[in-house]
Amino acid sequence: MLAYGLKDNSDSLRFEILLNGKLLKDIHLDEKFTSVLSISNDKSILLSTTDKFYLLKKDTIIPLGQNITGEIFSCAFTSEGILMTVKDDDLCFFDTAGNLAKLYKLPNKGMGISSGKEVMYIYDRNKDQQNNGLYVLAKHGKCTKLFDVPKPINSVVEKNNAILFAAGCAIFSFDQEINKLKPIIALPKDKEIISITVYFSTNWIYFSTDSAIYAVKDSNALKITDELGGVLKYSNNRLIVFNPEKKLLIGIYGLESKIASIKPPAKNASTILQPSQPLTNASIINMANQNLSDDTIISIIKKSEVDFILNVDATIYLSENKVSSPVIMEMKNAMKRKTGTGSNGKAGEAGKK
User: Fold this and answer.
1) Angle at CA 82, nearest 5°, toward 80 and 87?
2) What distance in Å separates the CA atoms of residue 75 and residue 43, rounded to the nearest whole number?
3) Where are the domains of the chain?
4) Do domains 1-17+151-270 and 31-125+138-148 have the same CATH topology?
5) 262 and 39 in contact (C-beta within 8 Å)?
6) What's the CATH architecture for 31-125+138-148?
7) Total Cβ atoms within 10 A of residue 302
8) Which end of the chain is less congested by CB atoms within 10 angstroms, N or C?
9) Per residue in 187-214, is it b (16+ CB within 10 Å) or e — as a string?
């Protein structure tokens, strides 16, 4: 069922089945697709198994190239239309002869890749790693690590001058110019955000779990549906949703006009909306109450401007509101880095700031 008035029989919404199990059976293609989804410069849709690419053009799905030795983990088209692929722990591309050629040895196996306007982003997605890096690959070939976070990075997209990425149950924004990280929105701790995409004409951010799709813009957040999730892309005025487990690829048209007609729901306890900078005690309490992990909160503190109050009353108030000792210690460290003196000395009700 679609939430907040978005009904699936609404005149403003149109659902187009691009691919499903029946269609695959009809063309005698019984492949197990991975979560790879990319859009070419001519708006064709690229899907993948572990060893082969398929291109969906209009009503036809065609194999792309030969079967690949090794395992395909992710891919994305550059702004020039070159298909970049992560195969095992190699970054590869298709040469003029249509063969997959190695470009770089990557730091880890199974990394993700996303395209920006002028660069490519490569990121760690391994749940067993304590530090997961986000790297930027420039056109001239230089690869630079931007930062590490404690959670696997599931999806990356550019938005204006910032990099949005999903890690765990939250979406964060990273500003390269000032080297600052801030949270945009978070779901309950048991929900993992697996994909993000942006419709640049309206600046709506769409994101998904394995079973639900959401939209957020400024301070407004909506649940689009709780019956379908998967990998998202926005292309040709439609939200494309791919669920490889269900062998289902659909396009949803008319979301923006429908969203515009809905009065935004009241802010609720299931989301953390973008905070003003710098971070305050209230920001940290809000994150803790939404069940963000200590590692995630600490990572945000390390990359953010801060204005904490950490006298005795404030520290007690933080503890009473589910903020852990490791987080409070990092808050103190952040203020030491800022002031060189440790906690400031403000007292009383200011602790609730």
Assistant:
1) 150
2) 15
3) 1-17+151-270, 31-125+138-148, 281-352
4) yes
5) no
6) 7 Propeller (2.130)
7) 16
8) N
9) beeebbbbbbbbbeeeebbbbbbbebbb
pTM: 0.76
The span from the CA of 132 to the CA of 147, in Å, is 8
Residue among 267, 269, 268, 274 at smallest CA distance from 322: 269
Q: Tell me the pLDDT of the chain (353 aa) as tens digits.
A: 233 333 444 456 788 999 998 888 888 888 899 999 999 989 999 999 999 999 998 778 999 888 888 999 999 999 888 999 999 999 999 877 778 899 989 999 999 999 998 899 999 998 888 889 999 998 877 889 999 888 899 999 999 889 999 998 889 899 888 888 888 888 877 889 999 999 988 889 999 999 999 998 876 778 888 888 999 999 988 999 999 999 999 999 988 877 776 655 444 434 444 444 578 898 898 888 777 778 888 888 887 888 899 988 888 899 888 899 999 999 999 999 887 664 444 433 434 44
Instruction: Give me the count of residues in the chain.
Output: 353
CATH topology of domain 1-17+151-270: Methylamine Dehydrogenase; Chain H (2.130.10)
